[in-house]
From TrEMBL:
This is Haloacid dehalogenase. It holds the Pfam family HAD_2. InterPro entries: HAD-like_sf, HAD-SF_hydro_IA, HAD_2, HAD_sf, PGP-like_dom2. It comes from the Bacteria.
Amino acid sequence: MEAVIFDLDGLLADTEIISLKVYQELLRDFGIPFTEETYSRDYSGHREEENVQRFLDTYDLPWNFDQTLDKVYELEAQILAKGVNLKKGAKNLLTYLQKEGIPIALATSSVESRARMILDSNGILSLFDHLVFAKDVKRSKPYPDIFLKACSDLNVLPENCLVLEDNEAGIEAAYRAGIPVICIPDLKIPAQSFLNKTEQVFQDLDAVRDYLESKKEVF
């Protein structure tokens, strides 16, 4: 293993629940339920623009695309301003990899300013060697583009990298890129058909650190 590529939402940062709350809030006044299952199945791991279009295609709302996207960003900003927690073991794993001299990249479907704010506010932005955002590739997960871009930026072959992901779209993207992937589920445990495409499944990032330490001689 020559490099590790991290997802952001639901993997490093506990933000998937924030996105769920945003969409629930948008539908609250219309009396329309929006469940965790719906979010996990149809929205998790995708670009905000794609999610907003899917949202408008699904629900009869009195807003156009730009108005809805603005409302999503406004609501999310209000929640993010209160602070975002990192997932268990996130900082420990990042500092471990840095100490071991293993390059680290972020590959996220998030908007750049939002992602940088989350990383910087938690004191981990400087631990990354490369950052790849939604704007840097034409196709989002489950297409492999964002992970292949990260490998290229790191100058490491895909098969020599490791991806850490929490959801089905990310697992599929890594699989299509030919990169070994470890899953740390968040809101939803991916279907078995996706878990079959992973190297390992762990409960948290501390367990990933322990696993990598145990495999150090192999890598």
